[in-house]
Amino acid sequence: MSRILLVDDDIELVALLKEYLEGEGLEVAAAHDGVQGVSEALSGDYELVVLDVMMPRMNGVEALKQIRLKSRLPVLMLTARGDDTDCIVGLELGADDYVAKPCTPRELLARIRAILRRARMEKPEDGPPQPLEVGALTLWPAQRRVEWRGAPVDLSSTEFNVLEVLARNAGKPTSKALLSEQALGRALTRFDRSIDVHISSIRHKLGELADGRSCIQTVHRLGYQLIKE
Q1: CA distance 92 to 95
Q2: How far apart are the first and last CA of the chain?
Q3: Separation between Cα atoms, residue 30 and residue 158, nearest integer Å
Q4: Which of 19, 20, 183, 227 has its CA 20 to 30 A from that of 212?
Q5: Is residue 116 over pLDDT 70?
């Protein structure tokens, strides 16, 4: 049974979501402010944190910063509907995805399941895990580990998913719709900038090719392409 943490100061909403999610087979704990949320998130007892942006004592953005200093635990942000700034800032700081409030419990459950499904390490089959190599980039999908020019790269769970999809399609454009479906586990929606923000973060963490270009190129109207050196 997957154990998740809900961090939100809306006690009635948390109670509603907790009841629904537990009815769907999840084990759910709750915290009602950012300070308590960070402490619980870093306890090692959870597979995922659902983190509201607007909270007392410490808001969700600051709480996410504190979590990311010590952990790559998957984080799903709850943001105000129509506030793109919260969405983008959360993703830039390493959130795996976001849901705009008010949301239905069913939508939240779908996002949680998608993140959990992709965050769990795949068990390697017989023999040692086989890396996926594209130029200076090496990924070990079973271990969810990445190296660039032999140095480890610290990616969030969703960033790893995005990079893996690009690596498996290296040398050809990969649409944002496909990246959203395979990396985020959901269909791309209009005005959704999640993939763009994750790509920007990955570019920053990987650095540049020898000629100064990013190894992930934007292909006009087609999406993104991982370059084969």
Answers
A1: 7
A2: 43
A3: 23
A4: 183
A5: yes
27-31 β-sheet, strand order: 27-31, 3-7, 48-52, 75-80, 97-101
Report CA dihedral (14, 109, 113, 33) to the nearest 10 degrees. Answer: -20
pTM of this prediction?
0.80
Q: How many CB atoms lie within 10 A of CB 103?
A: 15
Name the pLDDT band for 129 (thresholds 50, 70, 90).
low
Mean pLDDT estimate for the chain: 90
Write down the domain spans for the chain: 3-119, 132-226
Q: Find, among 171, 174, 226, the residue nearest to 203 by Cα.
A: 226
Structure confidence by residue, pLDDT tens digits, 175-227: 999 999 999 988 998 888 999 999 999 999 998 888 889 999 999 989 999 99
Question: What ranges in the chain are assigned the alpha helix state H?
Answer: 11-23, 34-41, 60-70, 84-92, 105-119, 157-168, 176-179, 194-206
177 contact partners, CB below 8 Å, separation of at least 6 = 187, 188, 223
